[in-house]
Amino acid sequence: MTESMKVTVERKDGIAVIYTDGYINNQGGEEIARVAYQLIDEGYRKLLLNLEKTKIVNSIGISILIEIIEKMLAIQGRLGFCHLTPTIHKTFHIMGLAQYTTIYPDETSALAQEHVAS
Amino acid sequence: MTIETRVPVDWQEILSGIRVDQDWNLVERCLGLWCQGRGVDAAGLYAGDGTRHRRVASWGDVPLPDEESAVLLSDGLARLELPNAVLLYRRGRELPTPGAHELLLTQAEEIRKLRERLRVQRFQQSYRQVELEAVYEVGLAITSTLNLEELAEGILLRAVSLSDARRGALYLLEDSAFSLRRTIGGDARSTVSPGEDQLERLLADCGDCAQDILPGARYTMAVRIEVESKAVGLLLVGDKESRRGVGPFRDADRRTLNLFANQAAIALENARLHRQALEKERLEREMELAADIQRELLPTGTPWLPGFEFSGWNRPTWQVGGDYYDFLKLGGDRLGLLVADVTGKGMPAALLVSTLHSSLRLLFDGAEVGADLLSRLNEHIVRSSSSNKFITMILAELEPATGRLRSFNAGHNPGLLVRPSGEIAHLRSGGMPMGLLSGASYHSQSFDMHPGDLLCLYSDGITECTTPADEEFGLERLEQLLRDERERPLPEIARSVDGAMLDFAAGSPQSDDQTLVLLRRTA
User: Fold this and answer.
1) Is B405 helix (H, G, I), strand (E, B) or coil?
2) Fewest C-beta in 10 Å: which of A19, B289, B369, B498?
């Protein structure tokens, strides 16, 4: 895991996959939000956050993720997560994020199921 | 401008109210506000799985069905499709007055604030649960991982996350200083000394005084990781985050981090004990292997010589020992009987025994034994051993044809030659212990063995066997026992010596390696 958040994007058949590498805190969360809102502006309504290289998230990071989720709901879009560590997975469940998004074990199954849901 | 566009309550807000708050009273209040703003008499919100929608909230006096599918729109109800929900409503006859509009605006603002407070409250409650889960999970880690590196990472990740810190560092006590094991979010000093001024001030809650330990951090919080009131580590977190930037940590953060550190201490201690147990197990395996190797160095049987009988017996204190005995084939058809005792016990002594064994094989096999050979052996041992290690040794050279016995005693207990009459001759010291000093010289004593004579070579583990009151078995008891038993078969004499020592020790643990070599001339 790197010191500061690095975010990269791959566009795959109408689904934008956002790859995070680092700590989802205030700075990391805002970087993810910036990228997500930019993709929404581009017209993407399906976002997938791949957290394979993220081992840690704090409450500020979660509140930013909730804002992204609300934004996606407002535009009737879909936000999914994949490759969560067990700790982050549990945190998302406790914080209620899992109710509004879909959590996939890996990117392959996420993309397959999101395409079916199109 | 119409009321509908000015009232800041819309479907999205109602839906997010349902989804985020799960507070149906609040949702109904939002629904009511929407109805009043639009001049609607009654409305029902139906949610479900896409095929069947059940009423989840309603407003107004007009009765509405429980299921949306049961409604005929000709009943005067209007239908509005929403994401994952359906709204049925009955429009009223009149639109609200401008005065009602102002009232609605006030109510809407109050509801908005209430919703926001509830959201924050619920978020904090949920995150409190995350904190408790993190503490609980570290407890679980005790059984799930015993890998110290994994554990250290897990502890620091959770500590930083729990305290909403931007960065953190974990130190573990190594020797007499706290050594840096992991960092997140920035560098940290490599070592911290227990009791150093900056650390003490930090532990005393001086949050802005750790510039030297966490360079660049504006606010720092530190707690000790303690096992039985002894600090085994330090947890440092820096710069508490909020949406506005970073700030100091609160008392509640310190309490949570302390609680977390207590759990972490148990996990770390468990990992340390596990590592220690693995190391002990490894050493035991190595000792067993060394014991096997050392057993192979000792004779597997006794020589066969007409007119003579032999016996050899050895019992180390630990798995491996510093005693050694051997039957050596010397030049001129002579036979050497040797007992040696390396200073100390255990592995270091066993290693020197191994050196002695190979040196004897190289130097003595078929050789003419004399003072020069003993000196060469001494030089070899001097070079092969550390300065505080030496070997006492007695070598009895037997010429079977004549019964002539020549002994070399390098600082060892005197050998005992027991005559049939019960008289005992001592094979006394004739030089310094092997390996003690370079240039040592050795001389021999000669005896004639007659039929019935019994020779006993032994190590000090026999004569220095002690009682619980610390009384030694001693040379006199050994001599008396040999006199009494001198005519019995050699294995029985060895068993008698062993039995006498056990009786004498009366349960005291064996404190030194014990070796006994017997030779009798039978004809």
Assistant:
1) strand
2) B289
Name the residue with tokens 């805190």.
A25
Separation between Cα atoms, residue B2 and residue B39, nearest integer Å: 12
How many CB atoms sit inside 10 A of residue B492's CB? Answer: 11
pLDDT digits 0-9 by tens, B221-275: 999 999 888 899 999 999 999 888 899 998 888 988 998 898 888 888 888 888 8
Which residue in B126, B157, B243 is closest to A55 by CB distance? Answer: B157
Answer whether A93 touches B (CB < 8 Å): no
The torsion of the CA quartet B502, B508, B511, B513, rounded to 10 degrees, works out to: 20
- Could B241 and A63 be called an inter-chain contact, meaning their C-beta atoms sit closer than 8 Å? no
Select the residue of B153, B165, B185 nearest A3 (Cβ to Cβ).
B185
Distance CA B277, CA B291 (A): 20
- Label the pairing between strands A15-21 and A46-53: parallel
Per-residue confidence band for B108, with pLDDT thresholds at 50, 70 and 90 = low
How does pLDDT run across A58-88, given as a tens digit for each residue? 989 998 998 999 889 888 899 999 999 988 9
CB contact under 8 A, A63 and B243: yes
Higher per-residue confidence, B357 vs B387: B357
Q: Which residue of B has its CA nearest to A58?
A: B161
Q: What is the mean pLDDT of residues B112-139?
A: 75
Contacts of B134 (CB under 8 A, 6+ apart): A87, B158, B161, B162, B260
Cβ–Cβ below 8 Å for B185 and A23: yes
Quote the DSSP letter at residue B351.
Answer: H
Pairing of strands B245-247, B230-242: antiparallel
Can you give the three-state secondary structure of B207-256, one letter per residue? CCCCCCCCCCCCCEEEEEEEECCEEEEEEEEEEEEECCEEECCCHHHHHH
Distance CA B507, CA B9 (A): 90
pLDDT digits (tens, 9 = 90+) for B274-291: 888 888 998 888 888 877
Q: Is the pLDDT of residue B520 over 50?
A: yes
Task: Return d(Cα B332, Cα A34) in angstroms, integer.
Answer: 97
Residue from A59, A79, A95, A100 to probe the interface with B (highest B Cβ count within 10 Å): A59
**CA torsion through residues B372, B369, B325, B432, sign:** negative
